[in-house]
Design goal:
Elements lengths: L2 H10 L10 H13 L4 E5 L6 E7 L7 E6 L18 E3 L2 E3 L3 H20 L6 E6 L9 H10 L6 E4 L8 E4 L1 E10 L14 H18 L16 E9 L9 E10 L6 H22 L4 E10 L2 E2 L5 H10 L5 E3 L5 H6 L4 E3 L14 E3 H19 L1
Parallel strand pairs: 3-6, 3-7, 7-15, 8-14
Antiparallel strand pairs: 1-2, 2-6, 4-5, 5-16, 8-13, 9-11, 9-12, 10-11
Bound molecules: zinc ion.
Zinc ion binds next to helix 3.
């Protein structure tokens, strides 16, 4: 097994499901970096149970390259794993374990680069940025970006190592996840018209959302670089009511908007709110003044849309040996780095076809390819 493969075994052994602490993994990485004399800082969450790690190899006072990945993984609960998810196993050139593709494989390659990078005469710095809570709404990286914004020099480039099979990716959609709480008025169902049926009003909002989603599919709003080539709206959870013979007082549903980078997802939310205010609430309040429709944002991240004609695109093409730029359907922390003014690209080992699934794996060949790509990043930083 390669050095990156051995490091991957160490990383997979830490259960860093987003609901758990990531501190044991962060301690391991910190100790590893100390062994090579690499300075780093930790940025903890409010409770002190999780941390981002930001390390710098080479001169800190000139613009460099941020190599970024998240340390958390999605749960294995309810998945039919045929192998232990938190112990790396190998078979026929594939390395199995939770997070091997998404995205501890990339983190392992970053750590495997450290011995050479710590000895190299770097003219530009390489920064390692490890975050927490990416899988639950890109939460952790925000405090890391706040810290970065305090620094006098802005990085040249951020490379997010999410699994793209090492293909250069310049864009992805943005996402907003929302909760809508409909509050009506309960009564005996025999007198249904005297109540305000929260389930029925929620259903009208869900239908309206579907209609708004349809409107986003029109040809002039499409962008063929994405699959599907338009923004989408989806209601994914709904709950309300107590018993069939009670008019339900409350109903809550969660929905999301996945927007093309050029489109504003909040427009859909504003349209839905306007529909609620103008059409639904007057009828609800005519029966009960307590009626309400509340919207809360659960999480969001912006889209990524790095120009093909840009230095960032030229550099990643150089590093991965391809100008076959693509987009990915899933979101990354890249949108947040880009929003912070740092040119950002996505390229990493493994495939999201294996991410979030039982028996997740990355191939040794992909790790080798990533080691080679990072070798070219190191060579660039020495020029
Ligand atoms: Zn990921």
């Amino acid at each position: 097994m390669s050095a990156s493969g051995e490091l991957l075994a160490r990383l997979v052994a830490f259960d860093t499901t987003s609901r758990e602490t990531n501190l044991a993994l962060i301690d391991f990485v910190a100790g590893y970096l100390e062994g090579f004399g690499v300075p780093y800082e930790l940025i903890h969450n409010g409770e002190g149970t999780k941390a981002n790690l930001f390390a710098t190899l080479g001169p800190a006072d000139v613009p460099g390259i941020v190599l970024s990945g998240h340390t958390d993984v999605v749960p294995v609960d309810g998945q039919a794993w045929t192998r232990p998810p938190f112990a790396l196993s190998e078979s026929a050139g594939k390395l199995y374990g939770r997070g091997t593709a998404d995205m501890k494989g990339f983190l392992a390659c970053l750590l495997a680069l450290v011995p050479a990078a710590s000895r190299a005469a770097l003219r530009r710095p390489l920064h390692l940025a490890l975050s927490y809570d990416e899988e639950v709404g890109c939460l952790g990286v925000r405090s890391l970006l706040d810290q970065l914004a305090q620094r006098p020099v802005k990085p040249l480039l951020c490379l997010i190592g999410e699994p793209t099979e090492l293909k250069p990716v310049l864009g992805h959609k943005g996402k907003v996840a929302m909760r809508c709480q409909v509050h009506g008025a309960a009564c005996h169902s025999a007198y249904a018209p005297q109540g305000v049926n929260a389930v029925e009003y929620a259903a009208r909002l869900v239908v309206e959302l579907g209609r708004l989603g349809e409107a986003l599919r029109t040809a002039e709003r499409q962008d063929p670089r994405f699959d599907p080539p338009f923004s989408t709206v989806q209601t994914g959870l709904i709950g309300g009511g107590q018993a069939l013979n009670i008019v339900p007082q409350d109903c809550t549903f969660d929905f999301e908007i996945r927007a093309l980078p050029a489109q504003d997802p909040y427009q859909v939310i504003h349209q839905l709110q306007a529909h609620a205010e103008a059409t639904l609430l007057p009828a609800m309040r005519a029966i009960s003044g307590q009626s309400a429709i509340r919207f809360t944002e659960l999480s969001s991240y912006p889209g990524l849309d790095t120009a093909v004609e840009s230095e960032a695109a030229d550099w990643i093409a150089q590093f991965c040996g391809s100008r076959d730029f693509g987009t990915v359907a899933f979101g990354t922390e890249g949108g947040l780095f880009a929003a912070a003014g740092i040119p950002t690209v996505v390229c990493g080992p493994g495939s999201m076809a294996q991410g979030h699934k039982p028996d997740e794996f990355v191939t040794q060949a992909q790790l080798d390819g990533c080691d080679a790509m990072l070798g070219r990043v190191l060579a660039f930083a020495c020029r």
